[in-house]
């Protein structure tokens, strides 16, 4: 734990003092760099948005929760243009689960994308990563509304003091791709969704999970699903199911909620989950057993509240 706290501090230490102070303030609120802040730091550091994203990678990686691999992935996603063509930036890191199959792992790219999506973004312009995206992530990202225009930014060399980077479209990393259009879909992941599901009973945690289910992305199975996790300080984090045309790189609603929570709390802080709810539509598949299994590894003793919505 101490090593990762140091990783966070040393990742911040390379920023000029003013930026470092403001960045710490921003991260205390959550894993989102507002566009105006990013613009002022870019100005202050005489850098570019791409280089700022590269600067931020070690900060994002310090949040990685990796008890199995000890391999820390950092990712920074750039949302869609706002006024003055600025965009918010979203941090992400990888998350692993002890005692569970490796297929439950959340990759850093998924975490940053999920973070942006849960904050209302409807696409990504660019994604910076501290290592080349694995095949699984290339497929996951190909589901995005902006898959055809998404740029992947990679550090150009291993020199920690050199922030130069390469830019290539996702399609460069995934030629001859299989994606939503092969299954007859015109939309994609991060498109604004509202499924109109309701539940007739359930705790306030379940009511929050319902919001996740209503905004979830499940065009292939219609298993619209959301998970809400409550911490001992009463904060509730809600995640959404994100399905994939190739099925396996789908991100479960629990992974989504936990990946978000992991970026909101200080690096390596205890999760302290006290309640969990899964709300999902009636469908040919279900998130229930996978959610219970994953929950058992991060919050043993917490019983999953499962509500089927109509
Ligand atoms: Zn990956």
TrEMBL record:
Keywords: Metal-binding, Zinc
GO molecular function, one term: cytidine deaminase activity
Binding-site residues for Zn(2+), renumbered to this chain: 107, 134, 137
The keyword Metal-binding is assigned to this record: yes
Chain segments annotated as coiled-coil in the UniProt record: none
One Pfam family it belongs to: dCMP_cyt_deam_1
An example Gene Ontology CC term for this record: cytosol
Active site residues per record: 109
UniProt keyword annotation of Kinase present: no
GO biological process, one term: pyrimidine-containing compound metabolic process
Cited InterPro entries: CMP_dCMP_dom (IPR002125), Cyd/dCyd_deaminase_Zn-bd (IPR013171), Cyt/Deoxycyt_deaminase (IPR050202), Cytidine_deaminase-like (IPR016193)
NCBIfam families per UniProt: PRK09027.1
Stated name of the protein: CMP/dCMP-type deaminase domain-containing protein
Protein species of origin: Candidatus Entotheonella gemina
